Amino acid sequence: MSAPCSQGSPPKSPQKPRNGRLFIISAPSGAGKTTLCRAILKKFPDLRYSISHTTRPPRNTETPGVDYFFITPDEFKTKIRENAWAEWAEVYGHYYGTSAGFIDRHLSQGHDILLDIDVNGARQILSRYPESVTIFIMPPTLDVLRQRLIQRGTDSEAVVARRLENAITEMAGKDMYQHIVVNDALPQAIQSLCDIISENRAG
Predict the structure, then answer these.
(1) In the predicted model, is pLDDT for residue 19 greater than 50?
(2) For residues 157-189, b (16+ Cβ closer than 10 Å) or e, as one string?
(3) Does 191 share its domain with 144?
(4) pTM for the full model?
């Protein structure tokens, strides 16, 4: 005689996939943001990296779809009217923007996203994605930042001076960010970023 079937619990319905987390990293020019972002993407290869769109022509060292998506001004303005940008700005006569569709699609699929953007862009992003995790990269001092900009050897003295002025403006907005990482020694800065991202990843 077979044992009676157990009533048990009703079958569970499939769980809705969790939403991903958006990590925003900002820093003044020369603070090492690009180097840090590359290190983070190596540590967390499943992070999606948000690539900006721009209307300026590509430089010789840039690859479309890797460094930027290059589009025409008319295409960019059409997307402004369609509210397709999570944030956008006009800089020196060229448009730059972050695709809301890219962010919405990957977050809804449960993917975490890394977004490298300036303070004004971060402010726009936060108005649309208030649950973002925000991180600001600080140089140890302005003198160190000045030396880093000079050592790059890519800018004139006038451009370095302008970048320092912009850096002061950017750093004035650091209190908007949840986390501040001082990039004094690169390995320690990378570890601090890894700790922040690990603790805040959607699970």
Answers:
(1) yes
(2) eeebeebbeebeebbeebeebebebebeeeeeb
(3) yes
(4) 0.83
